[in-house]
Amino acid sequence: MSTEVPGTEVPGTEIPGAAPARARSVVVDGARVACHEWGPLDAEPVLLLHGYPANHHCWRHQIPPLARRHRVIAPDLLGWGESERPLHLSFDYDTEVARVGRLLDALDVGDAVNLVGHDYGGFLSLGFTETHPGRVRRLAILNSRAQSTFVGRWYAVFSLISLAGRTPALRRLTTGLPLAAIHRRSLMPLVRDGHVDAALLADYIDWMDAPQGRRWLVHYFGDYRTAPRPELRRRLGDISCPTAIVWGRADAYLRPGIATELAETIPGAELTMLDDTGHWVMDERPAEVTAALERLLARPAVR
Fold it and tell me: From residue 282, how far is each of 142, 156, 217 by CA, in Å?
């Protein structure tokens, strides 16, 4: 079931350089999803899906220029940002991909959408495009595990957290860890380099300080799997919509080979590979990312 919550205000939606957001909440699978919209309501929709552990603010540099000609929609995915963190729902990959479709239904975006995803959002975007090709006009994937997975030690780290999430004794132990502090330390280089300010970092992760937040995060990882999904790789050649792959080559989590495989296998895909740029490509190279997305949106959609 997907419905809108009338008159619900969503805090924290100001984007410098953009008009005030149209803030709303919709209900997807019985839980509240915070959504934020900019641009003309009658324009082609662009859905921006953030990655882990961010929220819609990770698109703050791209939203103002994209909203000049498009209806830009940036939700906080269920469990993140200002959205609800339900402990009774499943967060396995197939459920999350199908949930994207139910979110689109709740948002009433019409038959198809331009779909842009970073990190986890790109992982979901790829699966949704492959399983619902008629609902995607154009696709962009930015520094995402996509058809592959993480490198070396990061594969081990995320696999261990996933194991903890589905093992009762380990789940209790992990829930007691200072998860916000761990994430804060991991993301602090973005603050030191001036790509993210301290307030935005707090917006991303401070909810993990609360017991409910920690319980949800561990619950989420109990359904998460790090192993590659072979069907995603097999279906890359079937993607027929215009596609852009945007990648920071110096990503510590995800090898650039993921990007080159996507670009070489998806017919007509355009690859933008950015040197001296890490995982948080929208923060580190905002102008280049925006330009790549604008080029994608200018390409004729195959309908």
Answer: 9, 26, 24
Mean pLDDT of the chain: 93
3-state secondary structure 249-272: CCCCCCCHHHHHHHHHHCCCCEEE
CA distances from 189 to 86, 125, 208, 284 (A): 31, 27, 19, 11
For residues 173 and 4, what is the distance between their CA atoms, to the nearest angstrom?
Answer: 37
Query: If you compute the radius of gyration of the chain from its CA atoms, what whole number of angstroms results?
Result: 18
What's CA 46's distance to the chain center, in Å?
13
Question: CB-side exposure of 257: number of CA atoms within 13 Å?
Answer: 5
pLDDT (0 to 100) of residue 17: 80
- Cα(first)–Cα(last) distance of the chain, in Å? 28
Cα 273 to Cα 255, 270, 276, 282, distances in angstroms: 12, 10, 10, 13
pLDDT digits (tens, 9 = 90+) for 104-154: 999 999 889 999 999 999 999 999 999 999 999 999 999 999 999 999 889
**C-beta of residue 63 within 8 angstroms of C-beta of residue 18:** yes
CA–CA separation, 74 vs 59, rounded Å? 8
Q: What is the rounded distance in angstroms from the CA atom of residue 57 to the CA atom of residue 269?
A: 27
pLDDT tens track for 50-66: 999 999 999 999 999 99
